[in-house]
Design goal:
Strand order of the largest sheet: 1-3-2
Radius of gyration: 20 Å
CATH class of the largest domain: Alpha Beta
Mean pLDDT: 88
CATH architecture of the largest domain: 2-Layer Sandwich
CATH topology of the largest domain: Zincin-like
Largest sheet: 3 strands, mixed
Distance between the termini: 43 Å
Number of strands: 3
Helix content: 55-70%
Order of helices and strands: HHHHHHHHHEHEHEHHH
Length: 240
Amino acid sequence: MSTDELDAAALDVVLEVEERLESNPLAALDIAEHAPPESAAHPEVQLARARALVAARGPAAARPVLEALALREPDFAEARHLYAQVLEEVGEHQASVREMLVVRRLDEASDASEGFELKPVERTIIETAEKVVSELPGRFKSLLAGVPILVEERPSEELVRDGFDPRSLGLFSGPNQEERALPGPVPTPTRIVLYAANLAAFADPSDAEELEHEVEVTLLHEIGHYFGLDENGLEALGLG
């Protein structure tokens, strides 16, 4: 079988798994584990199988598949990212951080090889962020005053070493609005950061509307953290 035919066969399996993954993880797993022999070993099929294992049986069940895939395909960033998440879920934080650092390096190298241009994406993010803030109700806009909204290419290596996901779209750090209102000095500055390379990878940078939508959702998510909403509260507002 040619490489193109193998890729087409593998794609069929992956699409079938993805179609059932959320509604019926066991059915998705069955499809992945009974893939035709000519496509079963394809890295994308093995990754789909690992995702189905996580959904159907938990992260520990997917670990051996991802461990083998990382050894066989060390530059397969998607697989390394899921492997890092699985390691964190099973309590191996330091191993997870090591994998996340690999993911950051691979993503950075991929952007360089593909000629990713930061400036146009950065410009779209800044313009969209300004629009989002300008449309906030007056009270919230005034409470947000003094909180810088920054654009960076991707999370720093230092952040990733501290356990931060290198593929995060945004970050809120520092005291929230309620903590800033308390008497006394503020111990650390508050800031919101949007990560341009990750937003461009998550959306389609050639589709302005899609990128703007992701920037808006991400920024509102981080603003929600500033106003003290936890992940459940953000999910309830559709910002999870």
